[in-house]
Amino acid sequence: MHRTWPDLDVLELLVGVDDHGSLSAAARIAGMAQPNASRAIKRLEAQVGTPLLQRKPTGSTLTPEGTVLAHWSRRVLGEAGQLLDVAAGMREKRAAELTVGASMTVAEHLMPAWLGRFRRTVPAVTIHLQVRNSMQVCEDVTAGACDVGFVESPTVPRGLHSVAVAHDRLVVVVDPGHPWARRRRPLSIAELAATPLVVREPGSGTRTTLDVALHEYDRAAPLLELGSGAAVRTSVLSGVGPAVLSTLAVSAQVDSGELRVVEVDGLHLDRTLRAVWRPPRQLEGPGGDLVRLVRRNRT
């Protein structure tokens, strides 16, 4: 049998009449207009099939049946209040946890310092870091699997909001024994495109940026396709072949002479690294705090 549940507001009115001696006082304390309160009580009376108020020129008081229902209403409202308290606690628990998605380059070279500063600023938040490529991070953010993502791809999917948080540049690198390391003149873009390279997997921001930059040229098949910037860098250091990597990923090896940067005439691979999130436009909570901290400290 289907039941029609009473509205909690009218139960609060009933308790208010019992506590304060009149419907007008109960309505005032509940923040309800007197006519609306009267209509709500009449609907409840029709629902339970018995008068609940004794209406007099001087005001309204509870009937014996109304007194019984007021007693049970207190219990119902008490349980409902506990339900709301539990829900509030769940919201606070969720707010105290932050799931962050980050592309490989961001996770390896920027995220440790960002999260370290965030931890010192907001120590009570539990942080979960998921490291994926840029396309997968955007998919996770869209699906709600993480609160905020940090990506290096040149575009952001529709439906996500984004803001710039850092910049880097892609460069061509080789080991010192590679013939390109001894070149006196820059490569042409066509030469780079025609050369088999050690590359990241499709979907990574580094791969996408390179593919977009060379889309007008005939491309050689990849020499090797690997799932992280660190793996690509190790392959170049081992003499497998040239690669295009972020300056963030190779600066130490370039400074030490283990890798050489090869200039490419007319090729500009400056990138903007972005934070991405689902609507609304203004990111609130710990995710918003993290993005604001990163933007304040960017160089």
Automatic annotation (TrEMBL):
<dbReference type="Pfam" id="PF03466">
    <property type="entry name" value="LysR_substrate"/>
</dbReference>
<keyword id="KW-0238">DNA-binding</keyword>
<comment type="similarity">
    <text>Belongs to the LysR transcriptional regulatory family.</text>
</comment>
<dbReference type="InterPro" id="IPR005119">
    <property type="entry name" value="LysR_subst-bd"/>
</dbReference>
<dbReference type="InterPro" id="IPR036388">
    <property type="entry name" value="WH-like_DNA-bd_sf"/>
</dbReference>
<keyword id="KW-0805">Transcription regulation</keyword>
<dbReference type="InterPro" id="IPR000847">
    <property type="entry name" value="LysR_HTH_N"/>
</dbReference>
<feature type="domain" description="HTH lysR-type">
    <location>
        <begin position="6"/>
        <end position="63"/>
    </location>
</feature>
<protein>
    <submittedName>
        <fullName>LysR family transcriptional regulator</fullName>
    </submittedName>
</protein>
<dbReference type="InterPro" id="IPR036390">
    <property type="entry name" value="WH_DNA-bd_sf"/>
</dbReference>
<keyword id="KW-0804">Transcription</keyword>
<dbReference type="Pfam" id="PF00126">
    <property type="entry name" value="HTH_1"/>
</dbReference>
